[in-house]
From TrEMBL, chain A:
Name the UniProt record assigns to this protein: ABC transporter ATP-binding protein
Entry's Gene Ontology BP terms: peptide transport
Domain ABC transporter: 7-256
Primary location group: membrane
Native organism taxonomy: Bacteria, Bacillati, Bacillota, Tissierellia, Sedimentibacter
NCBIfam families: oligo_HPY
UniProt keyword annotations, A-Z: ATP-binding, Cell membrane, Membrane, Nucleotide-binding, Transport
UniProt keyword Membrane, yes or no: yes
Pfam families reported for this sequence: ABC_tran, oligo_HPY
Automatic annotation (TrEMBL), chain B:
GO molecular function, one term: ATP binding
PANTHER family named among the record's database cross-references: ABC TRANSPORTER, ATP-BINDING PROTEIN (PTHR43776:SF8), TRANSPORT ATP-BINDING PROTEIN (PTHR43776)
Protein name: ATP-binding cassette domain-containing protein
GO process terms (BP): peptide transport; transmembrane transport
Record-linked InterPro entries: AAA+_ATPase, ABC_transp_ATP-bind, ABC_transporter-like_ATP-bd, Oligopep_ABC_C, P-loop_NTPase
All copies of domain ABC transporter, residue ranges: 6-250
Family affiliation: Belongs to the ABC transporter superfamily.
Organism, as annotated: Sedimentibacter hydroxybenzoicus DSM 7310
A Pfam family recorded for this sequence: oligo_HPY
Length: 323, 315
């Protein structure tokens, strides 16, 4: 099925207005996510990944947040125009989000089975028995013995807490799951367990997903498409193959050149010079130009448009260095 | 590179807790050659930081010998140890919490020089501070900045400058790049490699990030629950791992490539508690290869080929 998009973001601009500055966190972002696909959001700290995700969930308080422009079209409807009440019926039901720190989603004083049953009771059924049955099923799916349902979050390890969060997020079989660095706080063997679990559940439910990560290894493993984000904009977008085999944006190239690769014996790291720009004082022109090894005069004056360089592969760069 | 700068024998560090003795470091032995980098990897809580700190006697060992440049530093008085420590420094993960928020870059770097009364006039002192800033790539204009005004990479440069101030020969780097974004991480890793060459430094590089450890290390020790389970050249660890835990750990790392299909070993369950552990192989409960013999005594760390040590009954 072509052009069946679960999510379309058009020209989204989000700012945080604080006493001493205006933070341009997301700048004219546009993207499309095909139903059943996983889109990776890759970028370094402060790139605007979480802000974008929370905008989709409508979790950002205004003020200090201001959604200046744009549309977020979910299942054909612009959710930026929906009422708070309508959003509450979508959140945790049609769209769920998993955060890096599982404790942001868990209540420390409520047994975990009750926390899973609660979202089911809120969205899917009034029948308590059915809700608890489904909650137990969810525990089984995330490989936690149902006998442990009466325990509290602090009785679980970090990896198990994150599995409880996954159980809550997926209890209502959402259409879209947004996972914001879900395994960053976990050890690598536990990360492997959690990624496999997420993959298996996603496959069996045909859930669409946004996977936010700074780890290109996770992108290689878990994503179909990739958006590389820098200073609040998508600088490159394409299939996983486009991004890994024929990336074109100098920032994407820089990311690949600066990570040590476990599968290579000798590798020289080529760092990206300089530091991330301050989003309350972004450079003119292309926001990457002060750090770009290929920048020419034009890059500091004019902001490049996103151009399609091959089918669906978009690059926000003049690409002067390739001419 | 055959002279040992550090030699650690049967080092133990136990902490008393309400629930019993916590075996944070449990009988580890290793050495580090002059001028090399020994990487120490393992998941959180396996005892990496405690090992690093105990080796410097920032934490007193429960038991064991620590020879530094031929001297048994565990037998030194606190007074003598304090002098010795000029040669042995540490850089921490989070430069934000290891720097004093009220001190400028200048004051932070000056502090170890002042405390140890290295110079007796201000000009020499200030020259040295600027020299150190230059060595670690900090622009002079940042001299009066406070930690909160610096990004993570620059804060880590201040931490490194402080560690270098007293001309050490050995530095424990405890997750020095773990809090940094990848573009900044590469800058700091390159800096540390350059400093090692220029200043003849010996590193103990602690990290949970296997890719980083592979990149920076000459030899690597893999820890699990207070024990070293495997210790070898980085090539042997990464290309020819022998211990079932090393194999599982390596296979769990997602690689930034789409042309390789991995056979991943998914371990069951979590790392068990280090409090009063059963005296058998620490990995027994999660080991996909465990056999009857593994129920027996603790496996010793044995040299299976030159410079390749493994603690496993099956090898
Ligand atoms: N509540 C807030 N008030 C002001 N600035 C914020 C707020 N939340 C995030 N920011 C800023 O917005 C930018 C984007 O942040 P974020 O979306 O969290 O990035 P990422 O998830 O990619 O690390 C950062 O510079 C961050 O400091
Ligand atoms: N001061 C302390 N008191 C009690 N337990 C400690 C102390 N410091 C560390 N531990 C415990 O020792 C074990 C090893 O910790 P650590 O050396 O920090 O591991 P790593 O650096 O590999 O994550 C952990 O179980 C930790 O909780
Ligand atoms: Mg974030
Ligand atoms: Mg540690």
């Amino acid at each position: 099925m072509k052009n069946d998009y679960i999510l379309e973001i058009e020209d989204l601009t989000v700012k945080y207005i604080t006493e001493d500055s205006i933070v341009s966190a997301v700048n004219n972002m546009s993207l499309k996510l095909e139903r059943g696909n996983t889109l990776g959001f890759v970028g370094e700290t402060g790139a605007g990944k979480t802000t974008t995700a929370k905008s989709i969930m409508r979790l950002l308080p205004e003020p200090p947040t201001k959604i200046e422009s744009g549309k977020i079209i979910f299942n054909g409807e612009n959710i930026l125009e929906k009422s708070i009440k309508h959003m509450q019926s979508i959140r945790g039901n049609k769209i769920s989000m998993i955060f890096q720190d599982p404790m942001t989603a868990l209540n420390p004083v409520i047994p975990i089975i009750d926390q899973i049953a609660e979202v089911i009771l809120l969205h899917q059924t009034k029948d308590r028995k059915a809700a608890y049955k489904r909650a137990e099923e969810m525990l089984e799916i995330v490989e936690i013995k149902k006998e442990r349902g009466e325990e509290y979050p602090h009785q679980f390890s970090g990896g198990m807490k994150q599995r409880v969060v996954i159980a809550i997020a997926l209890a209502c079989t959402p259409d879209l799951l947004i996972a914001d660095e879900p395994t960053t706080a976990l050890d690598v063997t536990i990360q492997a367990q959690v990624l496999k679990l997420m993959h298996d559940i996603k496959e069996s439910n045909n859930t669409s997903m946004i996977m936010i990560t700074h780890d290109l290894g996770i992108v290689a493993e878990a994503c179909d498409n990739v958006a590389v984000i820098y200073a609040g904009s998508i600088v490159e977008y394409g299939t996983k193959e486009d991004i890994f085999n024929s990336h074109a944006h100098p920032y994407t190239e820089g990311l690949f050149n600066c990570i040590p690769d476990l599968s290579k014996t000798e590798s020289e790291l080529i760092p990206i010079k300089g530091i991330m720009p301050d989003p309350s004082d972004l450079p003119t022109g292309c926001k990457f130009h002060p750090r770009c090894p290929y920048a020419v005069d034009r890059c500091s004056k004019e902001e490049p448009e996103s151009k399609e360089i091959s089918d669906g592969h978009m690059v926000k760069c003049f690409l002067e260095h390739r001419k | 590179m055959t002279q040992k700068l550090l030699e650690v024998n049967n080092l133990k560090k136990y902490f008393d807790t309400k629930r019993g003795k916590l075996h944070a470091v449990d009988d580890v032995s290793f050495y580090i050659y002059k001028g090399e980098t020994l990487g120490v990897v393992g998941e959180s809580g396996c005892g990496k930081s405690t090992t690093g700190r105990t080796v410097l006697r920032l934490i007193e060992p429960t038991e064991g010998e620590i020879f530094f440049d031929g001297i048994d530093i565990n037998s030194l008085s606190q007074e003598v140890m304090r002098k010795k420590r000029k040669e042995m420094q540490i850089v921490f993960q989070d430069p934000y919490s290891s720097l004093d928020s009220r001190r400028t870059v200048y004051e932070s770097i000056e502090e170890p020089l002042r405390v140890n009364k290295i110079f007796n006039n201000r000009t020499d002192l200030s020259n040295r501070v600027f020299e150190l800033m230059n060595t670690v790539g900090l622009a002079e204009r940042l001299v009066n900045s406070y930690p909160h005004e610096l990004d993570g990479g620059r804060r880590q440069r201040v931490g490194i400058a402080r560690a270098l101030a007293l001309n050490p020969s050995f530095i424990v780097l405890d997750e020095p790049v773990s809090a940094l974004d990848v573009s900044i991480q590469a800058q700091i890793l390159n800096l540390m490699e350059r400093l090692q060459d220029n200043l003849n430094l010996t590193y103990m590089f602690i990290s949970h990030n296997l890719s980083v450890v592979r990149h920076i290390s000459d030899r690597v020790a893999v820890m699990y629950l207070g024990k070293i389970v495997e210790l070898a050249s980085y090539k042997n660890i990464f290309i020819n791992p022998q211990h079932p835990y090393t194999k599982a750990l390596l296979s769990a790392v997602p690689l930034p490539r789409i042309d390789l299909k991995l056979d991943r070993i998914i371990l069951e369950g979590d790392v068990p508690s280090p409090i009063n552990p059963v005296p058998r192989c620490r990995f027994y409960g999660r080991c996909p290869e465990r056999k009857e013999v593994c129920k027996g005594d603790l496996p010793e760390l044995r040299e299976i080929e030159a410079e390749h040590f493994v603690a496993c009954h099956l090898i």
